[in-house]
Amino acid sequence: MQSQLKNILVSSHKEGMIAFLKSRPEYFNDALELAISDDQPFAWRSAFLLSSCMKDNDIRVKKYLNSIITCLPSKSDGHQRDLLRILYRMKLTDKNEGLVFDACIRLWEQIGKAPSVRVMAFKFIIKIAEKHPELLNEISALMQDHYLESLSPGIKCSVQKMIDEISEQNKILTDGY
């Protein structure tokens, strides 16, 4: 069954891939299994497809959460970004949030990584920190200039906005006590 999915992944544009998966939901689990595999270029493309057409907190993804989190560090940059996009749309347990938070910190700290991966990791760090304010102090070290220097001006501006928002929220939280 994966051969038809694989063919779509390498021969279609995004819209065609999404249309295929939406019209053939029986391929969804195959796409998930492919997304966590090392079968390139299909694995990355499958993660891209899933992140683009899944529902928020998609029940079909839940049983794969641990596998996605576990395989995340071993994947290439673009593949990591799209696996993070899948995870970002899911409601995670506290344990899984902790694992993803740690993984995202490691990704953010790798200045040589693709900026799109680092920004997605930072966005996830912020999302988790907003839910767990006790983590806000831990992420202040991640906002140092040397983490921003390798980013393009546009991406740097986007990250700076996230930093400003979380800093303002942190100020509000600390002023409220």
Radius of gyration: 17 Å
Residue-averaged pLDDT: 90
Tally the beta strands: 0
Taking the sheet with the most strands, its summary is: none
Helix content: over 70%
Overall body shape: globular
| Helix and strand sequence | HHHHHHHHHHHH
- First CA to last CA: what distance? 57 Å
Number of helices: 12
What class do helices, strands and sheet pairing give? mainly alpha
Low-confidence stretches: none
Q: How would you summarize the topology of this molecule?
A:
Blueprint: H1 2-11, H2 14-23, H3 28-35, H4 42-53, H5 59-62, H6 65-71, H7 77-88, H8 94-109, H9 115-131, H10 136-139, H11 145-148, H12 153-175
Helix pairs in contact: 2-4, 3-4, 4-7, 7-9, 8-9, 9-12
Summarize the structure.
With 177 residues, this protein is mostly helical. It has helices at 2-11, 14-23, 28-35, 42-53, 59-62, 65-71, 77-88, 94-109, 115-131, 136-139, 145-148, 153-175. The longest helix has 23 residues, at 153-175.
Can you walk through the features of this model?
The chain is mainly alpha-helical and 177 residues long. The protein contains twelve helices and no strands. The chain has helices at residues 2-11, 14-23, 28-35, 42-53, 59-62, 65-71, 77-88, 94-109, 115-131, 136-139, 145-148, 153-175. The termini are far apart. The mean pLDDT is 90.
Provide tags for this entry.
177 residues, mainly alpha, 72% helix
